[in-house]
Amino acid sequence: MAHRPLACVILAAGKGTRMKSDLPKVLHRVAGRPMVGHVLAAVKALDPDHVVVVVGPGMDSVAAAVAPYPTAVQLEQRGTADAVRAAFGLLEGFTGDVIVLYGDTPLVTPDTLRALVQARRQAADPAVVVLGMRPDDPGAYGRLILNARGGLEKIVEYLDASEQERAVGLCNAGLMAFDGARMVELIGSVGNVNAKSEYYLTDVVQIARRAGMACAVVEAAPAEVVGVNSRAELAEVERLLQRRLRKAAMDNGATLIDPDSIFLSADTRLGRDVVVGPGCFFGAGVTVGDRVEIKPYCHLEGVRIDSGAVIGPFARLRPGAEIGADAHIGNFVEVKNAVIEAGAKANHLSYIGDARVGARANIGAGTITCNYDGFTKSRTEIGAGAFIGSNSALVAPVVIGEGAIVGAGSVVTMAVEADALVVARGSQKAYAGWARRFRERKQNEKAKKA
């Protein structure tokens, strides 16, 4: 079968006034990714020939977020049909199929978009295919009215619907697929004789039917087409997406001990036989290898963890952390922009920033790499098999050689050669009886005041 071109138009010009935010609505994040980013990810899976994002005036931040995809500007908010018209200049002469989506509907899946395209290409050759849903409570959704042949006859807004039409459970989910060869004419015929004087995309169905063109419906799960217009709806979409991400992780072989307490980002990747304890947070850019154990209440972002490592509990891994195979990062350990090589251990109460910890090295409790002098970040290099005693401060830039031992409580400011012992702390002095005399003096002073 010859390739039929596909274009996608994403409507993202809405101001989102109910969000009460300076941030454009479609840039609010769900699972760590802007809503419009989720829509773009679904679209990308179809490998379309063209993608156009429609924005409002001054929405440079949205244009930057969707780059390199081009944007078209809807100069005035005059309805959804007018928004699609704004994209025509970037689709001039296009006669393939066109999907119209919404940047604030981030849960739509590639499979649903493919179903829309397949329905558009069926033998009946519908000019328009509308995505429908059957919510438990149809409420004020527009109703999709089918004809005797099962084709879509019209979309009726709730306020305009008769009692019989309101009883229909099939509702409009908003997304549409068009025959590009007929789309410009259909949308160009949409008028604005209505209470808001806006151009509604839903009117194209009746326009197409009056012209004798077929229209069709594809159904999706209601949870997939939830739109966001408020902070409460944003939270609901987050809840739904987290449920989807957790299920996918478990289906792929990870164990989530308490799934509802674990936050995943859209790009989180968990390997086989990974075990994640309660209360863990995965920010953007986390990849976890097989057989890793992540104990409760860890916070990870921008991290790669190799197979067999053990993390936490209460560990924080910040961007640039690379944890090698079978390494251990323990409770209240923070790692930032550092490579922890295979088998190395930092089990307690340490900060490792801008560093490399060699294979099988051991970092004692309370150790810190002093990486910042107020102006410059510097690196610490710790060789394979080195042992860093508890409560040590390694003042970067500094190199600890392979197999070296740093005595507990040391402040290391110069390079330590391989297999050496370095002790860098003040000498210990004892004053016999001083503590007893101090207590007696304080007790006498207290007695005189009484």
UniProtKB/TrEMBL annotation:
Return the EC number: 2.7.7.23, 2.3.1.157
Pyrophosphorylase: where is this region? 1-231
- Main localization (coarse): cytoplasm
Which InterPro entries does the protein's record reference?
Answer: Bifunctional_GlmU, GlmU-like, GlmU_C_LbH, Hexapep, Hexapep_transf_CS, MobA-like_NTP_Trfase, Nucleotide-diphossugar_trans, Trimer_LpxA-like_sf
User: A biological process (GO) annotation for this entry?
Assistant: cell wall organization
Q: Which residues form the MobA-like NTP transferase domain?
A: 8-130
> Residue ranges of region N-acetyltransferase?
253-450
The metabolic or biological pathway listed in the UniProt record of this protein is: Nucleotide-sugar biosynthesis; UDP-N-acetyl-alpha-D-glucosamine biosynthesis; UDP-N-acetyl-alpha-D-glucosamine from N-acetyl-alpha-D-glucosamine 1-phosphate: step 1/1; Bacterial outer membrane biogenesis; LPS lipid A biosynthesis; Nucleotide-sugar biosynthesis; UDP-N-acetyl-alpha-D-glucosamine biosynthesis; N-acetyl-alpha-D-glucosamine 1-phosphate from alpha-D-glucosamine 6-phosphate (route II): step 2/2
This entry's Gene Ontology molecular function terms read: glucosamine-1-phosphate N-acetyltransferase activity; magnesium ion binding; UDP-N-acetylglucosamine diphosphorylase activity
Sites binding acetyl-CoA sit at A365, N371, Y372, S390, A408, R425
Q: Which Gene3D superfamilies match?
A: Hexapeptide repeat proteins, Spore Coat Polysaccharide Biosynthesis Protein SpsA, Chain A
Q: Which residues bind Mg(2+)?
A: D104, N229
**PROSITE patterns, alphabetized:** HEXAPEP_TRANSFERASES
List the active site.
Answer: H348 (proton acceptor)
What cofactors does the UniProt entry give for this protein?
Answer: Mg(2+)
> Where does the UniProt annotation locate this protein?
Cytoplasm
Extract the ranges annotated as region (Linker). Answer: 232-252
Protein family membership: In the C-terminal section; belongs to the transferase hexapeptide repeat family.
PANTHER family named in the record = BIFUNCTIONAL PROTEIN GLMU, NUCLEOTIDYL TRANSFERASE
According to UniProt, the name of this protein is Bifunctional protein GlmU
Report which gene this protein is encoded by.
glmU
